[in-house]
Design goal:
Layout lengths: L8 E4 L2 E4 L4 E4 L13 H10 L7 H4 L1 E2 L8 E2 L6 E6 L3 E7 L3 E6 L11 E4 L4 E7 L8 E8 L3 E3 L12 E5 L1
Antiparallel strand pairs: 1-2, 2-3, 3-7, 4-5, 6-7, 6-9, 8-13, 9-12, 10-11, 10-13
């Protein structure tokens, strides 16, 4: 997986990070259907990004709760996650920043791989597909919007596994 992406760093046996922890992909452990919650290494990176202590009780207080493994920070901005399979299964790809310009899944080897999602924070996520295969610049075909503090266990229908990019505003 890491070989088919650019700029990623393995941070645990089941996680890859980009941009110093701003983007994290988690993989299910062998024999499991879903990716586990964030590792201690991922939590430290996420705390650093939030400008918070990287050690101590705040980092330990991580709540996954109803967010299907998508991180919830007691000290900052909640994350939004895309899942490879329905019911929040398979790989999880997560962010928490605002993105006015499209973020392309091709950078993370996640093109046409989203079947469920969680938006744990206060941003509105808009997801698009490509109008031309293999061309990120054609990622303009509106597929769905993710409202704040919502989740969807199965995108279904003609939009399943068609996500190629997104914006996150709010």
């Amino acid at each position: 997986m890491l070989a088919s992406t650019e700029g990623g760093t393995q941070i645990s046996p089941y996680e890859i990070s980009w941009e110093g922890g701003a983007v994290i992909m988690s993989f299910p452990r062998p024999g499991e259907a879903k990716a586990p919650t964030s590792s201690p290494t991922a939590r430290k990176l996420q705390a650093k990004l939030a400008g918070k202590p990287q050690m101590g009780p705040l980092v330990a207080e991580w709540v996954a709760g109803d967010h299907e493994g998508c991180p919830t920070e007691v000290f900052g901005n909640d994350w939004y996650c895309f899942y490879q399979y329905e019911n929040y299964g398979g790989r999880r790809l997560q962010w928490n920043a605002t993105h006015e310009k499209p973020v392309y899944f091709s950078k993370y080897d996640f093109v046409n791989k989203t079947s469920s999602w969680v938006n744990g924070g206060g941003k509105t996520i808009v997801v698009y597909g490509r109008t031309r295969s293999g061309d990120d610049s054609s990622c303009t075909d509106y597929l769905w919007s993710e409202s704040q503090h919502m989740k969807n266990r199965y995108v279904g229908g003609v939009v399943d596994n068609r996500a190629d990019c997104f914006t996150a505003k709010g």
